[in-house]
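Please, structure for the following, as tokens.
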Amino acid sequence: MRTRTGQQSQSLRAAMLGLAVVFAGGCVSRADIEDLKTSQKAMAVQVAQIAADLKARGAQPGGRPAGAVPPAAATPAPDKVYAVAVEDAPALGAADAWVTLVEFSDFECTFCRMASQTLTQLRERYGNDLRIVFKHNPLPVHSRAVPAALATECAREQDAFWPMHDKLFAGAGATALGDAQIEAYAKELKLELKKFKACLGGQKPRRRVEQDQGQARVFGARGTPNFFINGRFVSGAQKLEVFSQVIDDELQKAKK
């Protein structure tokens, strides 16, 4: 039987782990940062209380480390299924694929760039069974995220969304997303530059981006990258195996 001291030791480790990994695996907005600060303060109080109790009992923290800390309150629940509208969003894979993975992403987010490489591996692994849908969620803390998102939408007007997507993620942060660099990408893709530049200043691509952002807020998926796999929420730039576990589960259910 687990003792109260053992339970407290495990709780202490969980709380300390929460303080350490709260920003791991994704980019966050200012609103998320404020929420996380509040959560960190609460966890810090919990750590101090548990440590004081353990010290009074003459015990030392020990035992098996606890699992991942539960997500912030505003985050979608991983045990629920959400109806994420795909509509005319850019997609790779057949519309009737067994599994649809919807990604909310930001071109200036390092974790999003890492995740894009994982998604490429997933496409190679699952082929026609998997469809990947892209949604924009440029964060306010990234100065070049919106211009990059608009660039992909304007490239999309010339059937080049995914090639522009790949070029933007092949760079490294804001320095690779400047206006001159984006124009260079457009030239490399042989886009009609006059049409491309006119599109960048138009309302249509901006409305598309804002529509995606609004959808992300509705689901509480404010940071990036965030994913919905057949409606099931997966947060952050997870390892290939984490995505595969959810996809395999959804494949099994869909094919029954």
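The CA atoms of residues 138 and 145 lie 5 Å apart. Residues 1-24, 35-47, 59-73 have pLDDT under 50 and may be disordered.
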